[in-house]
Amino acid sequence: MAYNVLVTHRIPAEGLEMLNKDFNITLPEEKHFSTGELEKMIPEYDALIPVFGFKIDKSLINKGKKLKIIANFGVGYNNIDVEAATEKKIIVTNTPKTVIEPTAELAFALLLSLTRRTAELDHKLKNREQVEWEVMANLGHTLENKTLGIIGMGNIGRSFALKAKAFGMNIIYNTPSPLNYSDEKTYQATYVPLEELLKKSDIISLHTPLTEKTHHLLDDRSFQKMKKGAFIINTARGAVIDEQALIKHLQSDHIGGAGLDVFEHEPKISEELLEMENVVLAPHIGTANYETRKSMAEEAASNIRDYFDGQQPPNIVNPEVY
After folding, report:
1. H helix or E strand, kind and range, residue 174
2. 155 CB contacts (<8 Å, ≥6 apart)?
3. 189 in the same domain as 275
4. Domain check: are 126 and 247 in the same one?
5. Which residues form the domain of 46?
6. Catalytic residue at 9?
7. What phi and psi, each to the nearest 5 degrees, are found at residue 280?
8. Tens digit of pLDDT for each residue in 96-130?
9. Does 293 qualify as catalytic in the annotation?
10. Measured at the alpha carbon of residue 265, what is the angle toward residues 263 and 266, in degrees to the nearest 5?
11. Which helix (H) or strand (E) covers residue 290, if one does?
């Protein structure tokens, strides 16, 4: 029996090759299907592969009369109404393995670009703006001996910690489940309460999922507790930060700068952020490289394959369905 798989966006077809034998795969001819197109098509499909950020709400899920699994193309799954899927006994999976290294790499790229001012000075040179070539001009900050506070010490946070360790940084972290003693030694990281992390960190990097508890985790009160001149890196989800509060503290120079790959209302970006020299921006490209996109497709396909082979997928986010 061949199962039908609907893919919302045109992801690398070669990453779906393991499904070619027993599955009929429908990919959009253009960049992606519209919500209206999906609503008409989904009643005939057994599996759905949506891309992170593409809304899969209760209405669409209820139209999936044959739907058995939603294999999200991304580690974050807040784009999916998981509760609605669970009510319908539909499995939801994600792709946590392949996103680890590229997201940590991007976070570090933002950190270096911000602290060494490379993006700012690149922009000025290319736009023929006046740049001083003097020994005390264009000064940034070294990372060596700086205190890095990591919020969220999951796989991506740990990868980021290893990179920071290589640069001679002192690492403190806060996470719902602290590392064991052996892992803390491996990452040379010390667990501290969130308030202590905010007060002690020269740089704060966010690696936590977006939940009710983490929404606006960094708000006005949080920024007030931070060191003057602290830097913020966010490659997690935009709404983990109260964007207007961040702008306020950047404008007052209390926060030294920010490197942001995600935004509270993306793809809309606050005009104030676009105008600031001490802010480095990227359009949600944490996993945007050829190798990772193919690997993400493979991981999503593997979740589907496992399910229809009668096995529990390793990346299931609502195991209570079983």
Report:
1. strand 170-174
2. 96, 97, 100
3. yes
4. yes
5. 3-98+290-321
6. no
7. -110, 125
8. 999 999 999 999 999 999 999 999 999 999 999 99
9. no
10. 60
11. helix 290-308
